[in-house]
Amino acid sequence: MKDFTKNTTEHTFTANGAVLPIHVKGKFLFEGDKKFYVKGVTYGTFRPNRDGLLFPEKNIVAKDFSMMANLGINCIRTYTVPPRYILDLALAHHLRIMVGLPWEQHITFLDDATITRDIVRRIKEDVISCSHHKAILCYVVGNEIPATIVRWHGKTKIERFIRRLYNEVKQIEPDTLVTYVNYPTTEYLDLSFLDFDCFNVYLETPGKLTDYISRLHNLSDDRPLILAEIGLDSRRNGEEKQAETLTWQIQTVFAKGCAGMFVFGWTDEWWRGGFDIEDWDFGIVDRDRHPKPAYYAVGEALLKIPVPDLYHLPFISVVVCSYNGARTIRDCMEGLQKLNYPHFEVIVVDDGSRDNLCEIVREYPVRLISTSNKGLSSARNTGMYHAKGEIIAYIDDDAYPDPHWLDYLAYAYITSTHASIGGPNLAPADDGPIATCVANAPGGPVHVLISDEVAEHIPGCNLSVKKEVLMAIGGFDPIFRSAGDDVDVCWRIQKAGYTIGFHPSALVWHHRRNSLTNYWKQQKGYGKAEALLEAKWPEKYNGFGHLSWHGHIYGNGVTLPLKIKKDKIFHGTWGTSLFQSVYQPTGGFLHNIPLMPEWYLLSGLFALIGLFGFLWSPLLILWPLFILSILVVVLQATISASNNSSLMAAQKKNIKYKLLIIVLHMVQPVARLYGRFKHGLTPWRKRGADFNSQFNYGLSTNIFTYWSEKWKSAEDWLTTIEQNLINEKTRVKRGGDFDQWDIQVRSGLFASGHGLLSIEEHGSGKQFLRFKCQTHYTFYGYLLAGSLGLIALIASLAGEYLVGIIFWGMFSYTIYNYIIEKAGCVNSLYLAFQHLSNNLQQESLSVSPLVHSAKRNGSDQEHKTKIKEDDLKIAEEEAVISNATTIEI
């Protein structure tokens, strides 16, 4: 028989001999300072024994618990409340019990207040009967309320009732964990108030289970996730198939970062609704307690958690870059010493620190590289060049990893084709009130996911990448000295054709700013980084200078928009869908513009125009609009502070926490705006080709033509034109499925240009290209010009000539910008099209292209080609390496 003694666990005791309670820390459960993985089985329900209890006789229970403990099981899930002797036996065998609190979930219980009160009363009595017992893992206040009952009462009412039960249990047992067991058909329930999330999941293929666990992690945010039921019926599928399935189910559950699981069930003996269930055999032992193959499979799988034994584990280089980080570097070093992974090295790059950083780092067995101060990106590149590993894992000097950080990353790389993988970064709970509020404020390091497993962005404090890929894209851009480097490198990785992955439990603990002054400075720095990013990637920003992610932003503190439309729940026809999810409708530009820092500019514009009310009283009407715009900001901040924070229960009751978070929601956009404006990221900035007076006329359409001796598809031609526009730092957008244009460019806030390509085929691979360019003024431009012109006209007619002159001047300046931007858009499209000849020459083709442009009246246009070369910064990179001093510890 296989020896599973390595699986067995004992309780952790305090100094006075008491068993430590289980508590939540991030994505996992902990017993004291030791991570506690739930390795459980379900137990029951059973036919009533001689005493009328829904459990076997005491001697059978003792035998069951002994077999479980020997197998490595450390938790039991019951569906009814266990008597004290069951709890005592569990404690004696070092087992924890997830106590189910049964009630009538299958009826419309909220329609009758008497039934509701009776449910609450019995829940309280059941908790009291078990209260303060050390064998309790948690209480379960409900299990799979049927989807039809949830639809009958409505999502909100069910959520409120479960919260009520949660609060009732917490009043009796405030230090004991409480949860509810959900299932895919009602996954849309918002139960974020629970201590951790539980789901019953029966998926019988590895791929489907892997994908769904990733989805559940995203629904759970930074709370632990436990699968409360997994398993397979051996009667229908065979005992060997059951054993095989449980093996990969357990391996997948833990490797995907769950805090634990319960195998359904312990024994084939099952009693329900007054009858013995004879035609289902889900147990890992039979009704006579004889082990089935699944019993040994479970024990074998539990020997290899959280990540199964994998061949060819990659060697990982952990790189820590620091500048004057002595205050937090010790926590980072201590955390790295506790990593469970067998094959890694640690490199610390000191970027010219002036504190005692090096003295602290030399106390640890790591490689220390000292350079002159050249910024964060340069330090990251130094670590890249010196890394021996095939994977480089970057962690900030004010962060420390979970012990299994590298295990999860390695598993993710081995089981995927991602070039880069990241994970969450959570704020430690003991950093103080200001740091806690900052952790729940906007502007923090968050991740952006395109799907449940594929990321658009991962923050640099927890970013890993294959070294060969990072080297191939040129490393980090040294222009980003303190922030923005991670965004830039993620975009370049994706542009090179690679994907970025995300593992929800490859987490690090990241200290947040612990003073308002430091938070303000950080956000100004992020504003500067946005300006640098926009200058390098103008096509990713809109006219206001705002970046719109394609994916969904995850993390606490994100400012939530004011909802105009209600969320929709996909139920399927007659509510029969097995996986029912919430869909949040997009609100469009007007819905999201209050989230932009530039909203404050609109408020300022209202105030500015309102000031002229002292010269002409009708303009005082702008002051109510100014007040309304500020109220929108306050309302958004209040809703976000209430609904998108991870404060603990005691902190939520302290009004000071909520007020400070509201203030931070309002202050952060101002700091970002300051940093953006100071470094050139303004709504009135100009991008793309320079102004050309030859295109400075009316609303005419321009048609440019090009003869090619080399055949290309329309997609290839348009891709080349698009890349030429990007090289000119033009904001470019591809046409959508319903657009009558192929490419859009914008040089400013008021005008845009649309390009449409047509190709004439002339045989033998010869093509004649026509590129039609039309300019359009934006709605917001018309609105601004129209408003200023109308005010100027009315003021002049009313005899308020001073006000009229001021607003006529503002109107004229707006029209001037229209003309400049319109000409810039046409010139950008023209130059991108003209450069096609240069593109073909670079492809080593011998052609003699004829490029000319023609207005509809047939006049010719000629322009000089402007080519911008990329700044490679190779010399600076080599200087970093040559100045580095390596110290082996």
Descriptive account of the structure:
The protein is an alpha/beta fold and 889 residues long. Helices cover 39% and strands 19% of the residues. It contains 27 helices and 36 strands. The strands form seven sheets. The chain has an eleven-stranded mixed β-sheet, sandwiched between helices. Strand 14 (316-322), helix 10 and strand 15 form a beta-alpha-beta unit. The longest helix has 34 residues, at 801-834. The chain is globular. The protein starts with 21 loop residues before the first strand and ends with a strand. The model is unreliable at 13-17 and 844-889 (pLDDT under 50).
Helix-strand layout with pairing:
Blueprint: E1 22-25, E2 28-31, E3 34-36, E4 38-43, H1 58-71, E5 75-78, H2 84-92, E6 96-100, H3 113-130, E7 136-143, H4 147-153, H5 155-172, E8 177-182, E9 197-200, H6 206-220, E10 225-230, H7 234-237, H8 239-255, E11 260-263, E12 271-272, E13 275-276, H9 293-302, E14 316-322, H10 326-337, E15 344-351, H11 357-361, E16 367-371, H12 376-386, E17 391-396, E18 399-401, H13 405-414, E19 420-422, E20 425-426, H14 433-439, E21 447-449, E22 454-457, E23 462-466, H15 467-472, H16 485-495, E24 500-502, E25 508-510, H17 516-536, E26 552-554, E27 568-569, E28 582-583, H18 588-592, H19 599-611, H20 622-643, H21 649-652, H22 655-678, E29 702-708, H23 714-727, E30 731-734, E31 743-746, E32 751-761, E33 767-777, H24 779-797, H25 801-834, H26 836-842, E34 851-855, E35 860-861, H27 874-882, E36 885-888
Parallel strand pairs: 4-5, 4-11, 5-6, 6-7, 7-8, 8-9, 9-10, 10-11, 14-15, 14-17, 15-16, 19-24, 20-25
Antiparallel strand pairs: 1-2, 2-3, 12-13, 16-36, 17-23, 18-25, 19-23, 21-22, 21-26, 22-24, 27-28, 29-33, 29-34, 30-31, 31-32, 32-33, 34-35
